[in-house]
Amino acid sequence: MGIIKAVTQAAGSALGDQWLEAIEPDDMGDQTVFVRGVQVRKGRGSNTKGSGDVVSDGSLIHVYPNQFMMLVDGGKVVDYTAEEGYYKVENSSMPSLFNGQFGEALKESFNRIRFGGITPGVQKVYYINLQEIKGLKFGTRNAVNYFDNFYNAELFLRAHGTYSVKITDPLKFYREVIPKNQDRVEMEDVNQQYLSEFMEAFQTALNQMSADGVRISYVPSKSRELGSYMAQTLDEEWNRMRGMEIQAVGIASISYDEESQNLINMRNKGAMMGDPAVREGYVQSSIAEGLKAAGSNSAGSMAGFMGMGFGMQTGGGFMGAASGTNLQQMQMAQNAGQPAAAAPKGQVWYCPNCGNQNSGKFCSECGTPRPASGSWTCSCGAVNTGKFCTECGKPKNP
């Protein structure tokens, strides 16, 4: 028993009228993965055995795009196709095995499943959805740990979102995932076990992102990278065992537990207050808020300003010192990188004690005072008063 391609040039009811029975897939939703074929047209005397579980010789099977059709006899797959079109059932023909997009790899799965028959005398047509199965929801029940190198802390987050899967080996998927004696299966019917495995892989993927130095605040924008991590973690196992893989992961929201949020806020505030300009703005705004509060004192503005005056006497020294430090650091930052001012021309002198070149009043090397005005020290160390060195004859520096 097998299938052969029917004439594809004809279409619509004209084609269907040529066959005893016409079989099409039952309705498929976005998350439907498996349905049975149903008879949409039945000719007189076509089913000679009088049973709904028999596919008559000469019946027409319609396969739509992104569908995988299997012809099952006695519980074993006797033929299949992954190509859209019209197919005629021939009881006398051998399996045609139209592999479509799956190539020769599908034949290996067929050789493993075709001898698995269980109930003789039952013939059925089944369809598997090859489209991306989207909108599968996931969420972390408990906060998962994430070490962030930027914050240098072990943080904990919760994530919610959706993911999608795609069937890569429909015969293996049929054998390992689809429950026996089921004519219709939604993904949610079989997803509970796989969701647990997905969450384990999700934790592993987060750990890998942490090891790669991705900041925790960047995780929501890394859905594509996260899907890649998930693929590395889970796809090989799911492909090998169940004939499906993770297609995409979308994170809808990420939240932190209370302790992690406090640590993040503290670190961010500390980073901002490390800027002297921000600190000075905070000092000035604190003073302004104090003046505003004093003016609105319920006991009268004078009492408020008197209280503020007392407070400024006790805390003003600290506020003034803090403001002075901020201004000094801003000035240092502004001057950073600027070259030191050159010594005025004609003020360079050499120490008569150690020979070090100087421009100030004292030698920077040994502390010897600069020679009195009118005298000068030659580079050889001799102190002179004339235009030439009495020791070596060098002229005085201009």
Automatic annotation (TrEMBL):
Residues 56-267 form the SPFH domain. InterPro entries: Band_7/SPFH_dom_sf, SPFH_YdjI. Pfam families: Band_7_1. SUPFAM superfamilies: Band 7/SPFH domain. PANTHER family: FLOTILLIN BAND_7_5 DOMAIN PROTEIN, ZINC-RIBBON DOMAIN-CONTAINING PROTEIN. This is SPFH domain-containing protein. It comes from Candidatus Enterocloster faecavium.
